[in-house]
């Protein structure tokens, strides 16, 4: 990536946006929070604020899998892409997901009932082969902001939904910045092409102004005109996602203890803590001992996105698990341990640390209040 929005820089530096805008002002740059800065300018601002900046090199295919160790490199196998759908309000994100799910997931399922697990996978026919694509069910922005703010990276590809009758809007721009900040390739779905007055070419033009140039105009961004209502071109969109995934050479090591990220979690009255885990490396198995954030557990049941009980989940798959002692937070990392005692100790230490820093924060905020009064 070669640029960064002001708000992103603020997020990274844990600084206020105003502080950054002020700094830019003294450099003779009038900026607002969505303004993009080149890396050199971002570096200068960061250094003024006392942060040293390292600009990372481009990652290779294997490095795109989070949580990969050196020993995994000898045992890599390709894994499905994990896709997040993003876009402006009402541009059709939910409809598109539903439509894909209906045509692809519900097919051949008992009763066609799809359990809500925060993620689901679909089969895509691509060049005579069946490939899988995993969609995160969480609204794109929340998935990105909540998780990225905590350093978790779960998405391999972003599908940016832009309504053909409405074009690029503020949250479209925000989504572009998010995906760029995360270094994630973008596939554009120009939605609602069935609608009277829709103008896909105008949308492409607008996207070009925001740095996304369609492939057919010599750029690098695949763009597919679709309709979530009629289902037109959904297969083409899925194929495009598979194609991008192939170029990314996504891989992981299925022959090790699982690691990954909590996608969502809640307390179920009957079942206790329930968490949806995205496996990012290794294979997760029934009976595994895990630590998720500060929570300990032994997996008592695993349920896939079709509501079926399963015994194992390989890289890029998401499953709902039962057996945690407490409810972790979305964005928490999880790890499987061979040694139950060690796992318990780690979980306890983490929750102790969290308790201490909570108390510390509470104490700090009280000090601020008192000095404000005096
Ligand atoms: P938020 O979750 O509120 O951000 O919206 P969203 O992006 O999920 O949009 P949603 O799927 O709720 O769709 C918004 C409206 O657009 C609904 O009334 C849909 O029926 C309509 N809509 C979505 N896709 C299409 C489409 O392809 N064609 C037409 N004609 N209408 C669509
Ligand atoms: Mg929606």
UniProtKB/TrEMBL annotation:
<feature type="binding site">
    <location>
        <begin position="137"/>
        <end position="141"/>
    </location>
    <ligand>
        <name>GTP</name>
    </ligand>
</feature>
<feature type="binding site">
    <location>
        <begin position="191"/>
        <end position="194"/>
    </location>
    <ligand>
        <name>GTP</name>
    </ligand>
</feature>
<feature type="domain" description="Tr-type G">
    <location>
        <begin position="78"/>
        <end position="251"/>
    </location>
</feature>
<comment type="function">
    <text>One of the essential components for the initiation of protein synthesis. Protects formylmethionyl-tRNA from spontaneous hydrolysis and promotes its binding to the 30S ribosomal subunits. Also involved in the hydrolysis of GTP during the formation of the 70S ribosomal complex.</text>
</comment>
<protein>
    <recommendedName>
        <fullName>Translation initiation factor IF-2</fullName>
    </recommendedName>
</protein>
<feature type="binding site">
    <location>
        <begin position="87"/>
        <end position="94"/>
    </location>
    <ligand>
        <name>GTP</name>
    </ligand>
</feature>
<comment type="similarity">
    <text>Belongs to the TRAFAC class translation factor GTPase superfamily. Classic translation factor GTPase family. IF-2 subfamily.</text>
</comment>
